[in-house]
Q: What sequence folds into this?
C-alpha cells in the first residue's frame, strides 16, 4: 500500500513479503489462514498455496485474532494509545477502529464465534480486560487490573457471555452479566490442584465468628499447577492442559475441577507422560493435543482417556486448530512450517508452507532479468526467491553469516561469515545452489562485501581496518590481489566505476580516535585502475597495494556520520546526531590530492532525516534515486537532484528495531528491505506518476546499456563458473576464493557489532595474509640458508662457551648471571606473586580482625558482668554467675518514669487511707494478714530474698494495658536487682578463691624447697583457674599457642640481633669473674652456713685413709680417724633430726591446704544454694513477665483484628450503599420496561381483536379463512433442519446457545413470510386489494409478535440480572451483619480479658494438687479461679432453694399435661364437625348460577350488542386515561432521572477527589508504619536477646516445677469435687 509524502513524483508499492513470526496462526475462512509477518498480515490459501500480504494501517502489528465463520480478523498496532483494527476478508474492508482500550500495548485479542464481540487485554500499566461491540466501536464492559499475567483469551463458542483468560499461573472465567444495554464483567477464578494432583478445598464454616473471618482475611496460598493451554467444549466446559503434564476438566458453572490425566500416577498412559499439553483443540470424538514431541488424538469418555492416533512431524508443532467447517486440521511450527490434514480424505499430513523462521541478515537481487532475490538468515540459511515471492531453493551454510553481495558479471553470490571467511555460491542452477570456493581473510567477522558496478573487483572490510581487493571474475579464480590498511574501524563501504577514466573508486567511512564505534568522521577515498592491477609492481612482497597503483584521499567532516554512499563526484551521508541527510561535493582531482591528508568537507545540502535512527543509505545504479532506511521501519526514496521531496513506505515494525538494510535492483525499480528483528523480507516496486516517466525511462535505458556492456563478459565468465566443482570434492590447486557482492546494499546494524567476535577461525588455519607471509618466510629461508647455517654454528660455539662460563661461575663463591633480563623477569614475577599473597593474607587478617572486633563488641565489651564460673577444689560442683549488660539509657528512663508514677499513685492512696479511722489492733491484724498473704499472692520469693522493688503493682490491680507494661518494667528491674546482688556475692567468693590459689602456690613452693633438700620427687596438687573461671585469658594469645614460625620484619630482625649481641657480651663478662668462681668453689657462693645447708655438709676423709692401708697408720693417724668417725656420727644424727622436722612441716602444709580448700567448697555450696533460690525467683518473675507480655500482645492482636474488621465493615457498607443505589436504578428500569412490555402486549392483542373489524366488509367464511391464514407461521425448525450435518468432526454443530442468532431467525422468518404473501396463496374470491391489506396486517402482526418476544427476552434478562443483584445485595447485608457480630464478639472478648486477670500463686507441695498439664502446650488448661468460702455457701443455699422449686413445678407440669390431653381430644371432635360443614357449603355453592348467565337470560340480542359497545367505549376511555397517566409518570421519571444524574455527577467528582488523595495518604501511612516498626525493633533488640537466652533454660526447668504444682492442684480439685457431691442433693432419681 503506497504512502506518498509528496505529489508529482514516483511512488512505491509492496510487491511481496516473506517471513514468519513466532506468533499465532488463525483461520480467516475455511481455506485461508493468516499470520503476522513484520508490519504485514499474510494470508495463505491452503488449496492454491497462494499468498497475499496486507500492510498495517498503523504502526506495526501487535496481537492478532480471526473468526473464520464470519470472515473477520482484528489486530492491534504497536504505539502509545494503540488502536484495534477490525477488517473483513476477503474484501479487506475496515469495519471499525477501536480506541481507548490500552495505554501501551495489547497482549491478547479474541473474537466471539457469533456476534460482533471482541475481547482484549492490555499490558502495563492498566491491565484492562475489555469486551467490545466492534460493529459500533463501543466498549460494552471492562475490568481494570484484571490481566496482569494474561497470555490468551478465548470466548465460549456456545455462549459469548463467557470469556476465559489464560495466565502464566492462573485461569479465570469472566461471566458477562447482561441487562439490556448494561454489561458487567464478573470474574470466577479457577483454583487448580496442587502439583501432586490433590485438592485443598476449604469448606465454609457453619458460624461466622472472629476466627473464621480472620482466617478468610489471611488465607494462605500454596503452589498449584501451571496452566499452559485451554479449549472450550460443546457443553461449555473447559479442557485445561498444564505444563506439568496434567489434563484437567473444569466446569465454570459449579467451579468443579476434575483431573482427567495425572502423569504421576502408575495407571497413566506411558506415551502421555513425556508430553506436556502445549496446545488443545476440541474434536467431536475427543481432543487434539500438542506435546513436546508429537500431536495426539485423545478419545475421552468420562474419566477414561485413550490415544486414538499419534502424529510425529519433522519439526515440533506449536499450534493446532480446525478450520471453521471442521474439515481441515492445521499444524504450525514456530520454525516456519505449516501442515494440513484432511481426516475425511486421507491420513497423510501435507506440508503447505515452509519458510524458515528467524531474522534475515541481508538480501539482494541477482543481476539478471528474472529479478531473483538472494537472502541470508542469521542461522546461515541462503535462500532464493522468485519475482513473485516464491522460495525456489535454499542452502544451509552451517555457519553464522554477516553480509552478502552478488556479482554483476556471473551468477554467483559472495557471503561473509563471522569466522572471517568469504564463501562463493554458484547460483546458475537456481534449484540447487552450491558452494564452489572459499577463502579465509580475517580472524574476525567479515563486515562488508562490495562489488564495483562493472564486476572488476570485490572489496572486503573487517574490524581490523584491512580492505582486501579480490578478483571478481571466475576466470581469475577469485584470487586475492592485495590489501590496504585504513586508519580506524570501517563502518561502511561503497563503490563507483568510471568507465571513461577506467578507474574504480571506493569510499570507506572510518571511525576516528575521538569517534564512537557507531559513527565516524573520517572519509577515505580509494582509486584503483580497472586494468593491470595484478602486475608485480602493483603490490609489495607482503601483498599490500603500492602507492602508484592505489590513490588514497582522506577527508574529514564536521559531524560524525553513521552511513555514506559514493556518487560520481559527490557523497551522500547520514548524520544520526543531527538526524539529517547530507550531500558533500568532492574536490576535483588535480593529481596532487593524494599527498593531502585530512581535507575538510562541508555539506552543501542538508535535509531532514528519519525520526528514529541510525539510518543507512543506498544509491540506485543509475545514481538518480537515493533510498534511506532507519530504526523507525520507514523506507524513504528521494531523487538525488531534489532531496527535499521523498516518498515514504512503512516496511517494517518500529517496535522490533525497524529496517536492517536496503538494496536496489540493477534497473533501480525494485528494492529489498530486511527487518532487524521482525523476521520479514519486503520487496517494493517503484511506480511512475505523471512527469516522472522520463526518470523511469532513464533508469531503464541505463539498465539496458549496462547489461549490453557486460553481456560479453558474462558470456565468457559464467561458463567458467559453471564448470567449477563443489568445494571440498575437487579443489583446484593454487586457487583462492574471493567474496562477491551484488548491488549497493548497506547494513543498518553492521556498526552495532562488537569488534571482538565470538566465532573466530581456528589458529591452525592461517589467513591469506598469514599464508603469504609464511611463503615469504620460506623463500627467505631458502635464499639465506648458507648464511643461516654459518650463523647457527657461530651461535653454537658461543653457547658452548657461555655454558662453560656458567659452570665455572657456579663453583665460585660469587658468581655472575649472564641472563640478567631473565633474572629480573623472574625476580619481578616472584615479587609480584609475593605481593599478591601478602595482599590476600593482609585482607584475610583484616577480615578476621573485623569479625573479632564485632564479636568482641557485641558479646564482650557491652557486658557489664561477663560470664564466669567458680569450680570447687574437691568436687565437680560449679557455680555460674549471671552475665549482665549495662542498663541502657532508655531502660533507666522507663524505670525512673514508672517509679515516679508509682510514687504519685502510692501518695494518693496514702492520703485516702488517712481519712479512715482504724484502731491500732485492727491495723496490726491487717498487717499480719498482709504479711501472711504476701509470699503467696505476689507469686515470687524475691521479696523474701530482699530484692523486691517497693513500687511493684499488686497482681489483682493490673487492669489496664499501661499498668501491665509498667509492671513488666518493674519486674525486669527486680530481676536485675536479684542478678546484681548475687553477682556481688559471686565476685567476693571469686576473690577468695584467688587468694586461696595464691596461698596454695606459696605452700607448694615451700614444699618443693623442702623436697629439694630431702632429695624427694613427688608431684604436688596445684589447682589453677580454667578458661571458664578466667575468661579474659581467651582474648590473650600466648606465644606458646602459636605453632607457625614467627615472621619478623627487617626492624625486628635488627632488634633481635642487637639483643643477642648484648646477651653474648654479658655472658662473656661473667666468664672472667674470678671472685665469684672462688666463692662458689669455697662455700657454694655464701659467706655463712645456714641451717638448711646441714644436709649438704660432708666431713672430708683424712688423706692417709685414701693413700695408706690400715696397718700402716700411726697412732696420731688413728686418733684423727676416730675423731673423724665421731664427727661423722654426730653429723648423721643431726641430719636425721632435720629430715624429720622437714617431713612434719610438709604434712602440716598439706593439711593446711586441704582444710582451706574444703572451707572454700563449703562456701561454694552455700553460694550454689543461694543461686538456686535466685534462679527460682528470676524464673517466677520471668513467668509473670511472660504472662503479662502475652496479655499485652493478645490485646494488641485484638486491636489489630478490630481495625481490620472495622475496615472490612466500612468497605462492605460502602459497597452496600453503591449496590443499593444501583439496585434502585435497576428496579426503576425494570419497572419501566415492564410497563413498556405490558403496552406492547396490549397492542399485540389489539391487533388480534381488530382483525375481524378490519375485514368486516367481507363474508364471515372468508374472514374465518383469512383468520386461519393470519395465525399461520412458517416453520423455523424445518428451515434449520435443512443445514448441512455431514461433518462429524465439529463438536459445536448442535444449536448454539447464543442470543445473537435471534436477528438471523427473524430475517429468515420475514423471508418465509414473503413466500406466504405470494399471489399464489390468495384464497378464491378475494380481491387483490383485500389480499394486500391482509398481508400488511399479518406482517404487522408478525412484527408485533417479534417485538413482544424481544421485549420479553429483554425483560427476562433484566429481571434475572436484577435478581442477581438483589442476591448480591442480600449477601452484602449478611456479610455486614456477620462483621458486626464479629466486632461485638471481639469487644466482649477484650472486656473479658481485661477483667479476667491472671494471678500467679505460690503453693506448697502436697497442699493443693491439680491435674498435671503441660504449660508449654497451646491449649493447656492452666487457668484457675479463686473464690471466698462464703460464696460457695451461698451457692449451696441457692441450689437447695431451686431444687425445691423444681419439684413443685414438676408436679404442676404433670397436672397441666393431663389437661392438655383432654383438650386435644375435644379439638379433634370439633375439627370433624368443621369438615362436615365445609362439605355442605360446597354442595350449596355448586347449585348457584353465575352473574353473567343470569344477565344473559334476561336480555335480547340487541341489548347484548349495545352492552358490548358500551364496554368497548368504556375501555377506550380507560386506555386514553391510562396513556395520559403514563405520560405524566414518564415525565416524572425523567425529572427524577435528571436529579439522580446530577447527584451521580457530584458523587463521581467527590470520588475522584478522594482517589487523588488516596495515594498520598497510603504513602504517609506506609512511612509511619515503617518508622514504628524500626523503632520497635530497636527498643526490643536488647530485651529479645536476653529473653531468647533465658527461654531455653526456662522451658527445661519450668516443666518440673509446674508438674509438681499441678499434682497438688489436681488432688485438691478432686477433694473439692468429692465434698461438693456430698453436700448437694441429686435429682437424677426423680421421675415424672
A:
Amino acid at each position: 500500500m503506497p504512502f506518498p509524502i509528496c505529489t508529482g513524483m514516483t511512488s512505491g508499492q509492496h510487491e511481496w513479503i516473506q517471513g514468519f513470526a513466532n506468533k499465532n496462526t488463525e483461520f480467516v475462512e475455511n481455506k485461508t489462514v493468516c499470520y503476522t509477518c513484520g508490519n504485514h498480515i499474510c494470508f495463505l490459501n491452503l488449496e492454491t498455496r497462494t499468498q497475499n500480504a496486507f500492510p498495517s494501517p498503523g504502526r506495526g502489528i501487535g496481537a492478532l485474532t480471526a473468526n473464520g465463520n464470519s470472515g473477520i480478523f482484528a489486530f492491534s498496532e504497536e504505539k502509545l494509545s494503540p488502536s484495534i483494527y477490525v477488517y473483513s476478508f476477503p474484501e479487506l474492508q475496515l469495519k471499525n477502529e477501536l480506541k481507548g482500550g490500552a495505554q501501551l500495548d495489547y497482549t491478547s485479542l479474541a473474537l466471539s464465534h457469533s456476534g460482533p464481540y471482541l475481547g482484549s487485554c492490555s499490558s502495563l500499566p492498566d491491565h484492562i480486560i475489555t469486551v467490545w461491540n466492534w460493529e459500533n466501536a463501543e466498549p460494552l464492559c471492562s475490568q481494570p487490573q484484571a490481566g496482569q499475567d494474561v497470555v490468551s483469551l478465548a470466548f465460549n463458542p456456545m455462549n459469548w457471555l463467557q470469556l476465559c483468560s489464560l495466565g502464566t499461573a492462573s485461569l479465570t472465567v469472566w461471566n458477562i452479566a447482561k441487562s439490556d444495554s448494561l454489561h458487567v464483567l464478573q470474574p470466577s477464578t479457577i483454583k487448580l490442584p496442587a502439583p501432586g494432583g490433590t485438592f485443598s478445598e476449604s469448606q465454609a464454616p457453619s458460624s461466622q465468628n472472629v476466627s473464621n473471618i480472620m482466617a478468610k482475611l489471611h488465607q494462605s496460598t500454596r503452589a498449584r499447577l501451571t496452566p499452559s493451554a485451554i479449549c472450550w467444549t460443546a457443553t461449555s466446559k473447559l479442557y485445561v492442559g498444564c505444563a506439568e503434564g496434567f489434563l484437567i476438566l473444569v466446569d465454570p458453572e459449579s467451579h468443579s475441577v476434575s483431573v482427567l490425566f495425572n502423569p504421576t500416577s502408575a495407571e497413566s498412559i506411558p506415551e502421555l507422560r513425556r508430553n506436556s499439553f502445549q496446545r488443545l483443540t476440541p474434536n467431536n470424538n475427543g481432543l487434539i493435543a500438542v506435546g513436546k514431541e508429537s500431536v495426539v488424538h485423545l478419545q475421552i469418555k468420562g474419566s477414561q482417556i485413550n490415544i486414538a492416533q499419534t502424529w510425529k512431524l519433522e519439526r515440533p508443532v506449536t499450534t493446532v486448530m480446525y478450520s471453521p467447517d471442521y474439515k481441515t486440521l492445521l499444524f504450525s511450527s514456530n520454525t516456519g512450517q505449516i501442515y494440513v490434514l484432511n481426516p475425511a480424505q486421507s491420513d497423510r499430513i501435507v506440508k503447505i508452507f515452509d519458510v524458515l523462521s528467524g531474522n534475515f541478515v541481508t538480501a539482494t537481487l541477482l543481476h539478471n532479468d528474472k529479478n531473483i532475490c538472494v537472502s541470508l538468515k542469521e542461522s546461515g540459511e541462503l535462500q532464493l526467491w522468485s519475482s513473485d515471492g516464491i522460495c525456489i531453493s535454499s542452502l544451509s551454510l552451517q555457519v553464522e553469516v554477516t553480509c552478502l553481495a552478488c556479482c554483476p558479471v556471473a551468477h554467483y553470490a559472495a557471503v561473509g561469515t563471522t569466522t572471517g571467511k568469504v564463501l562463493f555460491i554458484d547460483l546458475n542452477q537456481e534449484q540447487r545452489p552450491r558452494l564452489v570456493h572459499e577463502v579465509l581473510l580475517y580472524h574476525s567477522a567479515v563486515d562488508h562485501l562490495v562489488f564495483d558496478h562493472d564486476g572488476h573487483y570485490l572489496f572486503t572490510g573487517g574490524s581490523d581496518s584491512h580492505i582486501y581487493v579480490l578478483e571478481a571474475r571466475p576466470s581469475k579464480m577469485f584470487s586475492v590481489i592485495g590489501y590496504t590498511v585504513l586508519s580506524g574501524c570501517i563502518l561502511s563501504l561503497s563503490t563507483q566505476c568510471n568507465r571513461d577514466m577506467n578507474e574504480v573508486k571506493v569510499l570507506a567511512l572510518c571511525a576516528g580516535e575521538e569517534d564512537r564505534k557507531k559513527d565516524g568522521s573520517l572519509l577515505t577515498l580509494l582509486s584503483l585502475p580497472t586494468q593491470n592491477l595484478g602486475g608485480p609492481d602493483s603490490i609489495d612482497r607482503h601483498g599490500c597495494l603500492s602507492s602508484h597503483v592505489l590513490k588514497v584521499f582522506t577527508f574529514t567532516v564536521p559531524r560524525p556520520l553513521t552511513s555514506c554512499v559514493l556518487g560520481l563526484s559527490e557523497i551522500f551521508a547520514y548524520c544520526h546526531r543531527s538526524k539529517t541527510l547530507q550531500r558533500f561535493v568532492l574536490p576535483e582531482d588535480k593529481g596532487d590530492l593524494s599527498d593531502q591528508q585530512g581535507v575538510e568537507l562541508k555539506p552543501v545540502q542538508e535535509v531532514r532525516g528519519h525520526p528514529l535512527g541510525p539510518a543507512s543509505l543506498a544509491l540506485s545504479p543509475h545514481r538518480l534515486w537515493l533510498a534511506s532506511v532507519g530504526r523507525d521501519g520507514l523506507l524513504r526514496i528521494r531523487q538525488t537532484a531534489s532531496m527535499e521531496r521523498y516518498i515514504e513506505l512503512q516496511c517494517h515494525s518500529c517496535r522490533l528495531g525497524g529496517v536492517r538494510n536496503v538494496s536496489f535492483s540493477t534497473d533501480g525499480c525494485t528494492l529489498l528491505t530486511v527487518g532487524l528483528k521482525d523476521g520479514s523480507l519486503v520487496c517494493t516496486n517503484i511506480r511512475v506518476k505523471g512527469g516522472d516517466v522520463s526518470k523511469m525511462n532513464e533508469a531503464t535505458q541505463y539498465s539496458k546499456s549496462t547489461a549490453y556492456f557486460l553481456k560479453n563478459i558474462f558470456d565468457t565468465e559464467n561458463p567458467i563458473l559453471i564448470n567449477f566443482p563443489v568445494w571440498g570434492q575437487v579443489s583446484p590447486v593454487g586457487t583462492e576464493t574471493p567474496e562477491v557482492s551484488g548491488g549497493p546494499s548497506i547494513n543498518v546494524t553492521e556498526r552495532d557489532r562488537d569488534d571482538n567476535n565470538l566465532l573466530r577461525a581456528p589458529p591452525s588455519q592461517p589467513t591469506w595474509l598469514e599464508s603469504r607471509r609464511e611463503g615469504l618466510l620460506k623463500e627467505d629461508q631458502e635464499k639465506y640458508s648458507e648464511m643461516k647455517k654459518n650463523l647457527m654454528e657461530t651461535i653454537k660455539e658461543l653457547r658452548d662457551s657461555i655454558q662453560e662460563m656458567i659452570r665455572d661461575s657456579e663453583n665460585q663463591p660469587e658468581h655472575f648471571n649472564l641472563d640478567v633480563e631473565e633474572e629480573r623477569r623472574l625476580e619481578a614475577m616472584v615479587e609480584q606473586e609475593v605481593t599478591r599473597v601478602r595482599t590476600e593474607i593482609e585482607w584475610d587478617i583484616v577480615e578476621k580482625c573485623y569479625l573479632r572486633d564485632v564479636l568482641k563488641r557485641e558479646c564482650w565489651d557491652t557486658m557489664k558482668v561477663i560470664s564466669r564460673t567458680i569450680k570447687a577444689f574437691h568436687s565437680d560442683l560449679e557455680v555460674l554467675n549471671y552475665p549482665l549488660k549495662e542498663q541502657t539509657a532508655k531502660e533507666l528512663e522507663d524505670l525512673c518514669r514508672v517509679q515516679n508514677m508509682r510514687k504519685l499513685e502510692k501518695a494518693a492512696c496514702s492520703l485516702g487511707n488517712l481519712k479512715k479511722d482504724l484502731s491500732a489492733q485492727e491495723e496490726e491484724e491487717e498487717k499480719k494478714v498482709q504479711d501472711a498473704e504476701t509470699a503467696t499472692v505476689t507469686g515470687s520469693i524475691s521479696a523474701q530474698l530482699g530484692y523486691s522493688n517497693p513500687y511493684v503493682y499488686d497482681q489483682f490491680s493490673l487492669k489496664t494495658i499501661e499498668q501491665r507494661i509498667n509492671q513488666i518494667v518493674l519486674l525486669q528491674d527486680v530481676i536485675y536487682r536479684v542478678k546484681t546482688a548475687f553477682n556481688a556475692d559471686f565476685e567476693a567468693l571469686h576473690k577468695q578463691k584467688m587468694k586461696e590459689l595464691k596461698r596454695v602456690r606459696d605452700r607448694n613452693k615451700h614444699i618443693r624447697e623442702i623436697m629439694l633438700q630431702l632429695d624427694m620427687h613427688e608431684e604436688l596438687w596445684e589447682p589453677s583457674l580454667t578458661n571458664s573461671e578466667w575468661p579474659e585469658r581467651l582474648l590473650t594469645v600466648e606465644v606458646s599457642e602459636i605453632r607457625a614460625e614467627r615472621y619478623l620484619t627487617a626492624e625486628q630482625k635488627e632488634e633481635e640481633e642487637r639483643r643477642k649481641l648484648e646477651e653474648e657480651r654479658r655472658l662473656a663478662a661473667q666468664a672472667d669473674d674470678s671472685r665469684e668462681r672462688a666463692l662458689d668453689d669455697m662455700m657454694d657462693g655464701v659467706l655463712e652456713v645456714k641451717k638448711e645447708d646441714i644436709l649438704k655438709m660432708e666431713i672430708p676423709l683424712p688423706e692417709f685413709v685414701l693413700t695408706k692401708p690400715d696397718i700402716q697408720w700411726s697412732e696420731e693417724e688413728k686418733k684423727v680417724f676416730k675423731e673423724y668417725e665421731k664427727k661423722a656420727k654426730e653429723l648423721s644424727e643431726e641430719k636425721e633430726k632435720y629430715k624429720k622436722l622437714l617431713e612434719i612441716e610438709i604434712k602440716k602444709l598439706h593439711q593446711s591446704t586441704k582444710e582451706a580448700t574444703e572451707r572454700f567448697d563449703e562456701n561454694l555450696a552455700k553460694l550454689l544454694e543461694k543461686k538456686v533460690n535466685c534462679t527460682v525467683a528470676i524464673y517466677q518473675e520471668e513467668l509473670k513477665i511472660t504472662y503479662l507480655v502475652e496479655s499485652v500482645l493478645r490485646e494488641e492482636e485484638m486491636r489489630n483484628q478490630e481495625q481490620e474488621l472495622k475496615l472490612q465493615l466500612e468497605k462492605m457498607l460502602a459497597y452496600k450503599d453503591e449496590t443499593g443505589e444501583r439496585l434502585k436504578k435497576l428496579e426503576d428500569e425494570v419497572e419501566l420496561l415492564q410497563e413498556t412490555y405490558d403496552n406492547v402486549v396490549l397492542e399485540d392483542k389489539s391487533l388480534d381483536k381488530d382483525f375481524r373489524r378490519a375485514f368486516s366488509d367481507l363474508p364471515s367464511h372468508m374472514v374465518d379463512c383469512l383468520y386461519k391464514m393470519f395465525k399461520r407461521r412458517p416453520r423455523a425448525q424445518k428451515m434449520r433442519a435443512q443445514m448441512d450435518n455431514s461433518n462429524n468432526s465439529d463438536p459445536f454443530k448442535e444449536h448454539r446457545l447464543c442470543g445473537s442468532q435471534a436477528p438471523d431467525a427473524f430475517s429468515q422468518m420475514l423471508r418465509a413470510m414473503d413466500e406466504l404473501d405470494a399471489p399464489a396463496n390468495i384464497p378464491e374470491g378475494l380481491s387483490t386489494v383485500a389480499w394486500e391489506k391482509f398481508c400488511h396486517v399479518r406482517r404487522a402482526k408478525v412484527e408485533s409478535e417479534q417485538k413482544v418476544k424481544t421485549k420479553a427476552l429483554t425483560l427476562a434478562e433484566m429481571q434475572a440480572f436484577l435478581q442477581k443483584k438483589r442476591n448480591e445485595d442480600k449477601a452484602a447485608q449478611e456479610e455486614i451483619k456477620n462483621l458486626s457480630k464479629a466486632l461485638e464478639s471481639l469487644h466482649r472478648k477484650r472486656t473479658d480479658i481485661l477483667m479476667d486477670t491472671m494471678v500467679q500463686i505460690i503453693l506448697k507441695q502436697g497442699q493443693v494438687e491439680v491435674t498435671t498439664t503441660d504449660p508449654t502446650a497451646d491449649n493447656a488448661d492452666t487457668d484457675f479461679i479463686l473464690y471466698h468460702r462464703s460464696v460457695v455457701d451461698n451457692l449451696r443455699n441457692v441450689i437447695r432453694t431451686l431444687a425445691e422449686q423444681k419439684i413443685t413445678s414438676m408436679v404442676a407440669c404433670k397436672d397441666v399435661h393431663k389437661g392438655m390431653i383432654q383438650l386435644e381430644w375435644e379439638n379433634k371432635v370439633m375439627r370433624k364437625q368443621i369438615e362436615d360443614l365445609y362439605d355442605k357449603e360446597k354442595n350449596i355453592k355448586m347449585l348457584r348460577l353465575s352473574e353473567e348467565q343470569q344477565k344473559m337470560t334476561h336480555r335480547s340480542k340487541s341489548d347484548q350488542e349495545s352492552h358490548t359497545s358500551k364496554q368497548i367505549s368504556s375501555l377506550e376511555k380507560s386506555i386514553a386515561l391510562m396513556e395520559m397517566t403514563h405520560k405524566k409518570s414518564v415525565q416524572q421519571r425523567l425529572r427524577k432521572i435528571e436529579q439522580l444524574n446530577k447527584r451521580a455527577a457530584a458523587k463521581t467528582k467527590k470520588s475522584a477527589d478522594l482517589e487523588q488523595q488516596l495515594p498520598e495518604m497510603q504513602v504517609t501511612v506506609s512511612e509511619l508504619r515503617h518508622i514504628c516498626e524500626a523503632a520497635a525493633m530497636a527498643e526490643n533488640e536488647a530485651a529479645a536477646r536476653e529473653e531468647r537466652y533465658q527461654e531455653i533454660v526456662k522451658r527445661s526447668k519450668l516443666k518440673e516445677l509446674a508438674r509438681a504444682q499441678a499434682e497438688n492442684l489436681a488432688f485438691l480439685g478432686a477433694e473439692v469435687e468429692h465434698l461438693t457431691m456430698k453436700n448437694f442433693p441429686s435429682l437424677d432419681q426423680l421421675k415424672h
Remarks:
- The chain has a mean pLDDT of 80.
- Residues 1115-1254 form the longest helix (140 residues).
